[in-house]
Design a protein that fits this description.
It is a single chain. Strands 1, 2, 3, 4 and 5 form a 5-stranded antiparallel beta sheet that branches. The chain has 1 helix and 5 strands, in the order E-E-E-H-E-E. It starts with a strand and ends in an 8-residue tail after the last strand. The chain has one domain. The mean pLDDT is 91. Helix content is 28%, strand content 32%.
Length: 78
Amino acid sequence: MPRYFFHIRDGEKMEVDPEGVEFPTLESAVLDAQAAAREMLAERLLTGERLDGQRLEIADETGSVLQVVTFKSVMNFH
């Protein structure tokens, strides 16, 4: 099963995911990243932190970024 790494980028800063998680498909990794982004966004909102520009970069084992999930993309304004 492929291993995906969720690196957190906030402007120029990046927090590297050293372990990664195995998922059967990239699509399942993206769904998990979206859920993680929602949780992190909620924590930032509660603590009054800045909510603009953060994103999760989903990389494969070679370090190639396959997908980007921005925190803004997981917010629903209805």
